[in-house]
Every structure is written in structure tokens, then in C-alpha cells.
């Protein structure tokens, strides 16, 4: 069945007239003169091929054809109203679906508060949250798999924009039974003889290199031991006595009985947490997410 070309004005006039059953009151309600209203109804009747109203002295009533058309007309007008509202909300970044990548360790710091704030501001936006390390997030942004990423030590990547939203100090992660755990503040050089448990460089090259540079600045080349793609696993391997680590300060929220977290000296180095997005992305959902990220403490 071919779709008829119907004017929304005609459908609206028809729906209102079916409620008022009076041309004068309908014209007043629509804010138009009565002759244009009569023309709209006649044009709609011409497309139907049958009268939609009976017209008598002081009396207007729906015909059988009018009764058949009315439910469909109301549904169409309601659907258009819903569609217009959804389009406006989507165009302003207040509705739609946004795909967010995040590094697992950020669940210990900025992620919960940021997602809660964004959901509170834009409850009609559906969030698809994907856990992935920094390097896969960069790839996912380039391939349009995610819209924004929350990551550590963002690389300087062509086509991507980044903005730091948090800066964290580093801490030492050592077995609780190790003699080093007896010190409240550990010189980085005190870790020189210990094997290091780290995330693989492929998971986050910039963070991996920052940790190695901390060791080199303290005068030693770290001896790399076990690797794990998540900080919780790194801490578990440290608890097992397989080495030590240097980690972002928020990692101390991972509570393991056999692990001690200690401040380091010097402690001027910081690791950046950033939000990343495609530089040319005009998606209003991304714009609103960035606004929320910037406003969160």
C-alpha cells in the first residue's frame, strides 16, 4: 500500500474538529480563520475520497469514514510529537546512546562519580560501558567502537583529543610480610633488588614507560617479572610474593591482607587520568559528557 501524502496541518485540524464538532471553536483553538480551516478539511476529504463530517445547521458530526480515520490520525500526531521530542533531545545531547570505554583501575577513582553525575543530568541517555585498557581504547575510538574513553596516560594520537581530569601520585605496592613494608615511606631506589610486577606495555605504553622512568631516575633498571593486565591481579601477584610494583595511588583501595601500600620518595611524579574522544566528533552526547567530566571534582 502506497503511503499517502498527508499534511500534518490537515490531520491536526481534523483531530481538533472531531473533538469540538464546531468550525468556529476549532478555528479559534487552532489560531486560524474559519475559511482556511474549511479548506484544510475539504482537502483531506478529497484525499480520502469521502466526507469526514456531516454538516448541518449548527451541527457537525463525524461520518463513518471520519470515525475510521480518527484513531489513525491521533496515533500519527502522537507519534510525530514523540519523534520531534526525541529528535530535540538527541540533538541537544539529552537522549540517545553513548559508548564509554574505561580502564579498570578508574573504577576505584573517578568512574563511579562521573557516571552517576552524567546519569543524573541526562537520565534518558543510555550508557554502554566497556572495560578496556588504554591501547585498546585508542583503537576503539579510531574505529568508532566507542564514543569516549577514560584512560591513563593518554598518548598523543592523531585524530584524537584528550583532556586530563585527574592527576594521581604513585605509590609502592609490596608484600605485607616483606621487610620493606616496615617503612612508612619507601625510597624508590629501595626497590632496586626486587622483581617488578607490572601491566604489559601493550596495555598502556605511556603508563608502563612512566613507571620504568621512575626507576631509572632513582638510578636503577627495574627487573621485570610477572605481568598482568589488571591492577587487581598485579596486587594479587605481589601478595603471593612474586615481586613489587609502582602503581597509581587509587590502587590502594584494592584491599588484600597480604599487600602493603606505601608512599614513595621522591613523590613528585604524577599519572594523568584523561577523557579522550575523536577530535572531529560533533556528537552532542560527547559534548555533554565532556561538560560533565569537566564539572566533576
TrEMBL record:
Q: What is the originating organism of this protein?
A: Microbispora siamensis
Q: Which branch of life, at top level?
A: Bacteria
Question: Could you tell me the keywords of this UniProt record?
Answer: DNA-binding, Transcription, Transcription regulation
Q: Name one Pfam family in it.
A: HTH_1
Q: Which family does it belong to?
A: Belongs to the LysR transcriptional regulatory family.
Q: Which PANTHER family match?
A: LYSR FAMILY TRANSCRIPTIONAL REGULATOR, TRANSCRIPTIONAL DUAL REGULATOR HCAR-RELATED
- Protein name, entry field: LysR family transcriptional regulator
Domain HTH lysR-type intervals: 6-63
Amino acid at each position: 500500500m502506497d503511503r499517502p501524502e498527508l499534511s500534518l496541518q490537515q490531520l491536526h485540524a481534523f483531530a481538533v474538529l472531531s473533538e469540538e464538532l464546531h468550525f468556529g471553536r476549532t478555528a479559534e483553538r487552532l489560531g486560524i480563520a474559519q475559511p482556511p480551516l474549511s479548506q484544510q478539511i475539504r482537502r483531506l476529504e478529497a484525499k480520502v475520497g469521502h466526507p469526514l463530517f456531516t454538516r448541518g445547521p449548527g451541527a457537525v458530526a463525524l461520518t463513518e469514514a471520519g470515525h475510521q480515520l480518527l484513531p489513525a490520525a491521533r496515533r500519527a500526531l502522537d507519534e510525530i510529537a514523540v519523534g520531534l521530542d526525541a529528535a530535540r533531545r538527541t540533538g541537544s545531547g539529552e537522549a540517545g546512546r553513548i559508548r564509554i570505554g574505561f580502564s579498570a583501575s578508574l573504577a576505584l577513582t573517578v568512574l563511579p562519580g562521573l557516571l552517576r553525575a552524567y546519569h543524573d543530568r541526562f537520565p534518558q541517555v543510555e550508557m554502554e560501558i566497556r572495560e578496556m585498557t588504554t591501547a585498546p581504547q585508542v583503537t576503539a575510538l579510531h574505529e568508532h567502537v566507542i564514543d569516549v574513553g577514560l584512560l591513563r596516560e593518554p598518548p598523543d594520537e592523531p585524530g584524537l583529543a584528550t583532556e586530563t581530569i585527574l592527576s594521581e601520585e604513585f605509590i609502592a605496592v609490596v608484600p605485607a610480610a616483606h621487610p620493606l613494608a616496615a617503612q612508612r615511606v619507601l625510597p624508590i631506589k629501595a626497590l632496586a633488588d626486587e622483581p617488578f610486577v607490572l601491566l604489559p606495555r601493550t596495555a598502556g605504553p605511556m603508563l608502563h614507560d612512566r613507571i620504568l622512568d621512575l626507576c631509572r631516575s632513582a638510578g636503577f633498571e627495574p627487573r621485570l617479572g610477572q605481568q598482568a593486565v589488571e591492577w587487581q591481579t598485579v596486587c594479587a601477584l605481589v601478595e603471593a610474593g612474586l615481586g613489587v610494583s609502582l602503581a597509581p595511588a587509587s590502587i590502594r583501595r584494592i584491599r588484600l591482607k597480604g599487600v602493603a601500600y606505601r608512599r614513595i620518595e621522591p613523590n613528585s611524579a604524577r599519572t594523568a587520568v584523561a577523557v579522550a574522544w575523536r577530535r572531529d566528533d560533533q556528537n552532542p552526547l560527547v559534548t555533554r559528557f565532556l561538560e560533565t567530566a569537566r564539572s566533576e571534582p
